[in-house]
Amino acid sequence: MNNNQQQLVNVGLVQMSCSPDPAVNLKKASARIQEAAEKGAQIVCLQELYRTQYFCRSEDYDNFRLAETIPGRSTEEFSEIAREKCLVVIAPLFEKRAEGIYHNSAVVIDADGTLLGTYRKMHIPDDPGFYEKFYFTPGDRGFVAFQTRYATVGVLICWDQWYPEAARLTALKGAQILFYPTAIGWAAHEIPKVRQAQLSAWEIVQRSHSITNGVFVASVNRVGSEDELEFWGNSFVSNPFGELLAKAKQGGEETLIVGCDLSQIEFYRVHWPFLRDRRIDAYDPLTERYLGM
């Protein structure tokens, strides 16, 4: 299929449940990252808000105490692991930027332990059980790509995954792999048919970003029940044609290691030249909220 020389990068996704104790979650995530490195991973991504349970189920001022600074405890821990294991680490955090300014963020740490930068979640939801607007200021750094030792990566967080504009702009910045750390689940009352439809939509929309941008997508979700939410796992990696390369289990913890051949990006973009045929002269109306009456 592809005559180019392989450019294989091993991606690790840590799908885990979370304790009410942030220290326990940090210790657990650190162990899983090292486990992924020992299995050959070169880039490892944790799930959204890895250090806490999903506190946005309710609006509670006490939850702001869970936030941490960047740099801070998590970045210190993961930078040391990254340096020791020659590993890129993507760690999503509840960031305290300043008094009264908090973000849902993700840091990217290069394989020498250097903190390359921070992505701040751009799209902030507000739904029953997902009251994120109460906690998070929308990101103000736009969509970014980070040149790591092994690949150029983009990070988008959970609700961002439903927006084709976010995937496109991150790919246009040069990202070869789009990482989507996530905390998504079902409400306890939802029937099996509804649950399956939601899971299917979640997977389809992200795999479509692989196809239309010619990139790899790596989506990592948490598992476990937290009050009325049951997180559905199903972390996966898709190739630049949207094919599933691997998928984690639905109901339990798993560390998924997936090889991604970056040379496939050129192959699929040449044969399905969506970026070539974009009508950039006709897209200005996308900056409008709505074009109907």
Q: Report how far apart the termini are.
A: 48 Å
Quickly give the structural class: alpha+beta
User: Which sequence of SSEs, written as H and E, runs from N to C?
Assistant: EHEHEEEEEEEHEEHEEEEEEH
Most strands sheet: 6 strands, mixed
Which residues sit in consecutive blocks of at least 5 with pLDDT less than 50?
none
Name the average pLDDT.
96
Shape: globular
Strand content: 25-35%
Q: Could you characterize the architecture of this molecule?
A:
It is a single chain. With 293 residues, this protein is an alpha+beta fold. It has a single domain (8-274), classed as Nitrilase/N-carbamoyl-D-aminoacid amidohydrolase (4-Layer Sandwich), CATH 3.60.110.10. Helices cover 24% and strands 29% of the residues. The strands form four sheets. It has a six-stranded mixed β-sheet with strand order 5-4-3-2-1-17. A six-stranded mixed β-sheet has the order 8-9-10-12-15-16, with helices on one face. The N and C termini lie far apart (48 Å).
Write a short abstract of this structure:
The protein has 293 residues and is an alpha+beta fold.
Please describe the structure with a list of short key phrases separated by commas or semicolons.
single chain, 293 residues, alpha+beta, Nitrilase/N-carbamoyl-D-aminoacid amidohydrolase, six-stranded mixed beta sheet, 5 helices, 17 strands, 29% strand, globular
Write the layout of secondary structure elements.
Elements: E1 8-15, H1 22-38, E2 43-45, H2 73-85, E3 88-98, E4 101-109, E5 115-120, E6 126-127, E7 130-131, E8 145-147, E9 152-155, H3 164-172, E10 177-182, E11 185-187, H4 192-213, E12 216-221, E13 223-226, E14 229-232, E15 236-238, E16 244-247, E17 254-261, H5 263-271
Parallel strand pairs: 1-2, 2-3, 9-10, 10-12
Antiparallel strand pairs: 1-17, 3-4, 4-5, 6-7, 8-9, 11-14, 12-15, 13-14, 15-16
Helix pairs in contact: 1-2, 3-4
